[in-house]
Amino acid sequence: MPDRESLFTAVTCIDKPGEESTTARQDLLAVHLEYVETILEQILVAGPLYDDDGETLVGSLFIYRTGDVAGARALLENDPYFEAGFWAEIRFNPFLAAAGTAVGGKTW
Question: How many separate domains does the chain show?
Answer without folding.
Answer: 1
